[in-house]
Design a protein that fits this description.
36% of the residues lie in helices and 12% in strands. The strands form three sheets. It has a seven-stranded parallel beta sheet with strand order 3-4-2-5-6-1-7. Helix 13 links the parallel strand 12 and strand 13. The chain is flat and about 130 Å long. The chain starts with 9 loop residues before the first helix and ends with a helix.
Length: 529
């Protein structure tokens, strides 16, 4: 079967031929015809089977009828990560050269206004992550009432990243008569519930057993010790033994492990780059571009790069850590052996990870053989694992280093520490020691307490003048009612003479009165009179 038998439009067939594709993959051959008939499709296929072209090609043919309007896109593609969204955009640029469609990429980590401007001009296709799409919708920059086709790609990855509530909300905002295409590599119960709720009489396309690995991938298991130094040494020995490595992806479970592996391998002369979720979008795209252009030999990545990244010529995959979820193993090793190519996948397993590995073998229904390292490599791993760890600069208290670190640990203990001098430890003691006599002198007999002289009786202090006067005052008599005072006639100036003239015949001498009450600086004038 070739693409001309699938019912694609002449323009689309011309673009497919220009891209160099001749024979469709099984998922493309079974998903494209019902998609062109406007039916819902639920596609189950392993990674690297060509699922992206299975929905891009029918979408290009269906978009030839109609025209986009401002803020009202015609089709919507939801991706779990920014890298997958950008990869689908590249697929539209490659396969849609003959159509000149407007494509808007709505992802986080980049400016908001250029994306909104592109939607205002009218976009035929919107490729977005759920969070940024809802952000545009809530700001009133995007209308979802004109969507004719919805594509949910890597649905199981959406479940792992917690996007299912956002997916449900987006589906409720879209028209009921839309066409939905649903693609996933695995089918957990939550994904089955989602397909039942939002797909109407779908065509189920299952080209391989769910959670299966490609037959073109050679899988091997490597036993390593649990110590991190020995485990990193085992990885380095494994990379040196593989002479046919063109490029490879090294997966780790944690972002901190990714950063540590990048530093360790770079020190030992390997050409490496890192990719994890804390990197900004420009740095992630630059690293991916360097890996695709063979400028980076080994890409150290977390699971953010395990789903859907289409890097065709990856020859090897190395799992430094056994993935926590068994389904992630299928997606990790699916980065190699794509489109019928051969690949190799090595997994480093410690004794503590045996339970997780057993769950992986039950999922893929396959027993993976062991890979034996050389005797020299085993000796190097044992020697590396036997090395003691370097003492920490913070004395083992876990304090932060740097100018802005926590200084409480340094201020907690000011006692002199032991220092290392010529391989021997010497305590930091004073050069001059104060020695005590062997026999201490007998303590002097305790003197009997002497009798204290008797205190004289406390004499009463004379009370103050105010207190004596206060005590001498008689008790306050109850207030007696006085007869009302008669109103006197007004004076010459119209004011009543409230104070009648006093009879000064009985008053004391004027001079004695002024002497008692006049200030000292006026006494001279008074005496002069």
């Amino acid at each position: 079967m070739n693409f001309s038998e699938l019912g694609l439009s002449p323009r689309t067939l011309e673009a497919v031929t220009a891209a160099g594709y001749s024979t469709p993959t099984p998922i493309q051959a079974e998903a494209i015809p019902p998609a062109l008939q406007r039916r819902d499709v639920m596609g189950l296929a392993q990674t690297g089977s060509g699922k992206t072209a299975a929905f891009v090609l029918p979408m290009l043919s269906l978009l030839e009828k109609g025209r986009a309007r401002a803020r009202m896109p015609r089709t919507l593609i939801l991706e779990p990560t920014r890298e997958l969204a950008d990869q689908v955009r590249e697929a539209f640029e490659t396969l849609g050269k003959m159509h000149n469609y407007s494509v808007a990429l709505l992802i986080g980590g980049v400016a908001f206004e250029p994306q909104a401007l592109k939607i205002d001009r009218g976009a035929d296709v919107v490729i977005a992550t759920p969070g940024r799409l809802l952000d545009h919708f809530e700001r009133g920059k995007l209308l979802l009432t004109g969507i004719d086709m919805l594509v949910i790609d890597e649905a199981d990855r959406m479940l792992d990243m917690g996007f299912i509530p956002d997916i449900e909300r987006i589906c409720k905002l879209l028209p009921f008569t839309r066409q939905t295409m649903f693609f996933s590599a695995t089918m957990p119960p939550e994904i089955q519930r989602l397909t039942t709720a939002f797909l109407h009489n779908p065509v189920r396309v299952e080209v391989s057993r769910p959670s299966s690995t490609a037959e073109t991938i050679t899988q091997m298991l490597v036993k390593v010790p649990h110590e991190q130094k020995a485990k990193r040494e085992a990885l380095r020995q494994l990379l040196r033994t593989q002479t046919n490595v063109k490029n490879g992806i090294i997966f780790a479970n944690r972002k901190t492990t990714v950063a540590l592996l990048e530093k360790s391998l770079a020190v030992h002369g390997f050409n490496v780059g890192a990719l994890h979720g804390d990197m900004d979008q420009s740095a992630r795209l630059k690293t991916l571009a360097g890996f695709r252009n063979n400028e980076i030999t080994f890409l150290i990545a977390s699971d953010v790069a395990a789903r859907g990244l289409d890097i065709p010529e990856v020859s090897h995959v190395f799992n430094f850590d056994v993935p926590t979820h068994a389904e992630d193993y299928v997606h990790r090793i699916g980065r190699t052996g794509r489109a019928g190519r051969e690949g190799a996948a090595f997994t480093l397993v410690t004794r503590e990870e045996a339970k997780q590995w057993k769950a992986i073998e039950q999922l893929i229904k396959k027993e993976v053989p062991f890979f034996e390292l050389s005797a020299e490599a085993e000796a190097a791993i044992e020697t590396r694992g036997a090395e003691p760890d370097r003492p920490r600069r913070d004395g083992g208290r876990g304090e932060r280093s740097g100018r802005g670190g926590d200084r409480r640990g340094r201020d907690r203990d000011r006692r002199p520490r032991e220092v290392k001098d010529h391989g021997e430890r010497a305590s930091m003691e004073p050069a001059v020691r104060i020695e005590r006599p062997a026999q201490a002198e007998a303590p002097a007999p305790r003197a009997e307490p002497q009798e204290r002289p008797e205190r004289p009786e406390r004499q009463e202090r004379p009370e103050r003048h105010e207190r004596s006067e206060r005590a001498a005052r008689p008790a306050q008599q109850p207030r007696q009612d006085k007869p009302p005072r008669e109103r006197e006639p007004r004076g010459e100036r119209g004011r009543s003479d409230r104070h009648p003239q006093r009879d000064v015949s009985d008053a004391p001498d004027h001079r004695s009165f002024t002497d008692q009450n006049m200030p000292a600086f006026l006494m001279r004038s008074v005496k002069a009179e």
